[in-house]
Amino acid sequence: MNNYNVPMLDTEARVEAKAYLDMLTKPVGSLGKLEEIVMQLAEMKGHRKPVIYKLGIIVFAADHGIVEEGISAFPQQVTRQMVDNMAQGGAAINVFGRQQQAEFSLVDVGVIGDDFTGLVKNRKIRQSTQNFLRTEAMTEEEVERAIQIGYEEALVLFDKGVDCLVVGEVGIGNTTTSSAIVAAITGMDPAELVGFGTGISSEQHVHKINVVRQALEFHQPDRQDGYDILRKVGGLEIAAMAGAMLAAASNRIPIVLDGFISTAAACVAESIGKGAVNYMLLGHQSMEPGHQKAYEYLGKEPIVSLDMRLGEGTGAAVAFSIIQSAVCMVNEMATFESAGVSGKNE
Ligand SMILES: O=C(O)c1ccc[n+]([C@@H]2O[C@H](COP(=O)([O-])O)[C@@H](O)[C@H]2O)c1
Ligand SMILES: Cc1cc2nc[nH]c2cc1C
After folding, report:
1. Domain holding 44: CATH number?
2. Ligand 2, atom 7: nearest CA belongs to which residue?
3. 244: alpha, beta or left, given left = phi > 0 and alpha = psi -120 to 50?
4. Which atom of ligand 1 has the smallest separation from the CA of 200?
5. Is 250 helix (H, G, I), strand (E, B) or coil?
6. Would residue 312 show up in a list of annotated catalytic residues for this protein?
7. Within 10 A of 67 (CB to CB), how many other CB atoms are there?
8. Among 21, 17, 27, 67, residue whose Cα is nearest residue 47
9. Which ligand 1 atom is at minimum distance from the Cα of 170?
10. Residue nearest ligand 2's atom 6 by CA
11. Ramachandran region, residue 307 (left: φ > 0; alpha: ψ -120 to 50; beta: rest)
12. Could you list the residue range(s) of the whole structural domain that residue 99 is in?
């Protein structure tokens, strides 16, 4: 088991960023949350004028044994088909990634079937987790390997100059897995967390709540122990996402969280590496009810709210435009002094 050393935030850089923002040609605080984003990036990166040179988007893919219980609106093979689609550049995340000129990485950690050809990184740990209503989702070794692979694949992007990271996923059934994880960590009733995922019926929704309740009753995961939760009710891609987030936090690289699955992985990352949450911004608010509970637990607020519920990293990639506006603002605006603009009346 690794020890993740997440560095402390640079609170001095935050104070300096605030002082500098107040010198720019605008009434104090008038750029609202953009100013807050600048201050957060400043304390993460340790600089009053933070820059982002290159966005990275990493998407982890895996299948889920719990799909056997009829909890998704789509068949399991869609995971594999969407990985192929992403490898061809045809998924929504490819479009937003190109728009943001992002470095894109697609990693199979547990999709059913053979290795992929082409752009996909083949790092399959096993083909799908087990059905966690009947048995533990995976072994302790598999959890640790998945976290390690996520960590390593994030480092590959950082070596290419990536200095801000979106962590996305694809995996049919993973809103059920995420509901179980967030219920385990927060202690909340699954009825408050379980949503409609890819678009199930009301009857299926009632069934999905019962599946999550029964699984938690059966496994009794330790809410303090992210490894235990992943082993019992987790997902391979979610463990890898947590690993990638730990790599980013350990290297003072800002993470942009996406929807429900990404935020569930963030809860696990924080449980494994205390302080990782300090390096996270929340891109958007997903339509999944459990997403709000999970981000409130992490103490986050979404940058945008666009009624999205796709996953893949799409909400985070869209929100990156706003983060980029904040970074441009602090680096390019004139100060009252440099522009010769009069200050506020005394
Ligand atoms: O990010 C979200 O909040 C989100 C909400 C609903 C669905 N998804 C995506 O849809 C898949 C999981 O949905 P489901 O219904 O199969 O559990 C998975 O591939 C996710 O990327 C993602
Ligand atoms: C089509 C489709 C695309 C997805 N992207 C992420 N999850 C998905 C689920 C479905 C069903």
Report:
1. 1.10.1610.10
2. 170
3. alpha
4. 15
5. helix
6. yes
7. 23
8. 17
9. 19
10. 170
11. left
12. 55-326
Residue type, 283: G
How does pLDDT run across 147-181, given as a tens digit for each residue? 999 999 999 999 999 999 999 999 999 999 999 99
ipTM value: 0.99
> Do 179 and 82 sit in the same domain of this protein?
yes
Q: What is the DSSP letter of 231?
A: H
Q: Would you say the CB of residue 64 lies under 6 angstroms from ligand 1?
A: no
Residue 248 CB contacts under 8 Å (≥ 6 apart), including other chains: 154, 158, 165, 167, 254, 255, 279
With a 6 Å cutoff on the Cβ, whether 319 touches ligand 2 is no
Is 163 near ligand 1, meaning CB less than 6 Å away? no
Q: Are residues 40 and 115 in the same domain?
A: no
pTM: 0.98
Catalytic residue among 142, 288, 312, 337: 312
Q: CB–CB of 86/170 below 8 Å?
A: yes
Residue 314 belongs to a domain: yes
pLDDT tens figures, 188-240: 999 999 999 999 999 999 999 999 999 999 999 999 999 999 999 999 999 99
Q: Are residues 28 and 133 in the same domain?
A: no
pLDDT tens readout for residues 26-51: 999 999 999 999 999 999 999 999 99
Note every long-range contact of 187-194, with CB atoms under 8 Å and residues 24 or more positions apart, other chains counting.
Answer: 187/223, 188/293, 189/213, 190/216, 192/289, 192/290, 192/293, 193/289, 193/290, 193/293, 193/294, 194/289, 194/290
- Ligand showing the shortest atom-to-Cα distance for residue 212: 1
Ligand in nearest proximity to the CA of 315: 1
Lookup: tokens for 346? 């005394």
Mutation to probe ligand 2, out of 82, 178, 287 (largest number of atoms < 8 A from CB):
82
Same domain, 40 and 123: no
